[in-house]
Amino acid sequence: MQPQDLVRDHTVYACVMGSRAFGLATDASDTDRRGVFLAPTPLFWRFEKPPTHVEGPGEERFSWELERFCELALRGNPNILECLHSPLVEHVDDTGRELLSLRGAFLSRQVHDTFTRYALGQRKRLDADVRTTGAPRWKHAMHLLRLLTTARDLLRTGELRIDVGELREPLLAVRRGEVPWARAEAWMARLAGEAEEALRGSPLPAEPDRARVAAFLYRVRRASALQAEPDHEVLQGVVGGGGVGQR
Q1: What is the pLDDT along the chain (247 residues), one digit of tens a residue?
Q2: Which residues in 53-164 belong to E strands, given as ranges?
Q3: Distance (Å, whole) CA 54 – CA 136
Q4: How far is it, in rounded angstroms, from Cα 122 to Cα 147?
Q5: Which of 27, 54, 131, 167 has the most CB atoms within 10 Å of its CB?
Q6: CA angle (27 as vertex; 22, 30 as ends), nearest 5
Q7: Which residues of 8-45 are buried (b: 16+ CB within 10 A; e: fewer)?
């Protein structure tokens, strides 16, 4: 089975991300598609394991195998968590619906560290742009402000919302370079401070619910194994081991 066949035949959840999901799309915006596929359990019985992620098929499409996706989500990866909360869902099956029902299990106060760490990396790149060219890449500045706003609101409310709503026009003004860099910097600093303050009283739990996610992953792996028809070539390779008496 080729990697892109896993996406075509075994996707459990697919959505649109990027500017279109954030409510920041313009006429020039791409359509970024993200998804989660469930590799059939028998594929893990081989020496060559299925891929943890796949690019394509098609442009601007990227998918993760379910276990890898859950692992990253439990770590509080901003891109993964936002993918789970996209308002633009293109495909979801029963496994995907159960995954979406677990969205709260992935959230914890640890998101402050992961979102902040990601934001700091983006900010360093913006500062490097200013030093070398005299101006930041304004699109990246806009998305950093969006990310900081998302992190603050998530810590305040315990809910992750990725559509920017009424902030659309102020953020697009940043993208167009209509906001002085000093004002954008002050906005970033204010958001970071508000996120720090929100952390202290956040309704989020201290840690994600790993046990609940692990139980879900076990169930779907087991169901996949039980539903699979016997793969005689795989079984022969496992049982035979290359010859009787070999170690």
Answers
A1: 788 999 999 999 999 999 999 999 988 888 999 999 999 999 999 999 999 999 999 888 999 999 999 999 999 999 999 999 999 999 999 999 999 999 999 999 999 999 999 999 999 999 999 999 999 999 999 999 999 999 999 999 999 999 999 999 999 999 999 999 999 999 999 999 999 999 999 999 999 999 999 999 999 999 999 987 555 444 444 434 444 344 4
A2: 53-55, 61-65, 89-92
A3: 31
A4: 10
A5: 54
A6: 60
A7: eebbbbbbbbbbbbbbbbeeeeebbbbbbbbbbbbbee
CB atoms within 10 A of CB 148: 24
Which letter does DSSP use for residue 52 in this model?
S
Tokens of 8: 């075509």
193's tokens: 């401070």
Residue that is written with structure tokens 């293109």 in the block: 90
Q: Note the pTM of the prediction, 2 decimals.
A: 0.87
Among candidate residues 62, 67, 59, 63, the one with its CA nearest the CA of residue 30: 59
| Single-letter amino acid code for the residue at 172 | L
Q: Which residues contact 2 (CB under 8 A, 6 or more apart)?
A: none
